[in-house]
Write a structure and sequence with these properties.
Helix content of chain A: under 10%
Radius of gyration of chain A: 13 Å
Oligomer: heterodimer
Distance between the termini of chain B: 37 Å
Largest sheet of chain B: 6 strands, mixed
Low-confidence stretches of chain B: none
Number of helices of chain B: 0
Low-confidence stretches of chain A: none
Distance between the termini of chain A: 34 Å
Shape of chain B: globular
Shape of chain A: globular
Order of helices and strands of chain A: EEEEEEEEEEE
Largest sheet of chain A: 7 strands, mixed
Radius of gyration of chain B: 13 Å
């Protein structure tokens, strides 16, 4: 009965590789987000999707590309991984076009070597 | 200066103590204030959110907002070892659902 799930939980890869992280929510929400939490624990928004459409795209390198095949899924694809991409990536969702009540997934810990 | 400042701690207290967690901010446009709890290796979980100034209580948790001082607090009464986690404050301007987070305060409640 997991509300927001992410796969994989851990991802270790080498510089230059391309990788994807998947997110799914079963809450019936129409807005989904990607956040990055760095080593100092700061949590920053990367992207926000509402009804499969991108509504917010913060200053993120274009190596990062989100894809939302439907309202329940939001994937993150990262090209040409760099050392600085190492972080924990969280997916979140909220209802009704956006809300202050966001529900977070368990996170994907990405390590780039 | 970051928009939201939060002491990372750790804050260590004995079981049963009253805990006070705080954040200061610089953007006077913030109107919505949230507190999230994050256990180790887990995602943040929303505890409470408040609009504008005032107090809000939910069980052992009380959130306070003082907009004139740009200062928010979360109080935990009768703290338990299960409260040990990182507490993140977050805040948004009106009409934006994208919060600006503090870096979190690590709380340790020892038996």
């Amino acid at each position: 009965d997991t509300a927001v799930s992410q796969t994989p939980k851990y991802l270790v890869t080498q510089m230059g590789n391309d990788k994807s992280i998947k997110c799914e929510q079963n809450l019936g929400h129409d807005t989904m987000y990607w956040y990055k939490q760095d080593s100092k624990k700061f949590l920053k928004i990367m992207f926000s999707y509402n009804n499969k459409e991108l509504i917010i795209n913060e200053t993120v390198p274009n190596r990062f590309s989100p894809k939302s095949p439907d309202k329940a899924h939001l994937n993150l694809h990262i090209n040409s991984l760099e050392l600085g991409d190492s972080a924990v990536y969280f997916c979140a969702s909220s209802g009704t076009g956006g809300s202050y009540e966001q529900y977070f997934g368990p996170g994907t810990r990405l390590t780039v070597t | 200066q970051k928009e939201v400042e939060q002491d990372p701690g750790p804050l260590s207290v004995p079981e049963g103590a009253i805990v006070s967690l705080n954040c200061t901010y610089s953007n006077s446009a913030f109107q919505y204030f949230m507190w999230y709890r994050q256990y180790s290796r887990k995602g943040p979980e929303l505890l409470m959110y408040t609009y504008s100034s005032g107090n809000k209580e939910d069980g052992r948790f009380t959130a306070q907002v003082d907009k004139s001082s740009k200062y928010i607090s979360l109080f935990i009464r009768d703290s338990q070892p299960s409260d040990s986690a990182t507490y993140l404050c977050a805040m948004s301007v009106g009409g934006s659902y994208i919060p600006t987070f503090g870096r979190g305060t690590s709380l340790i409640v020892h038996p």
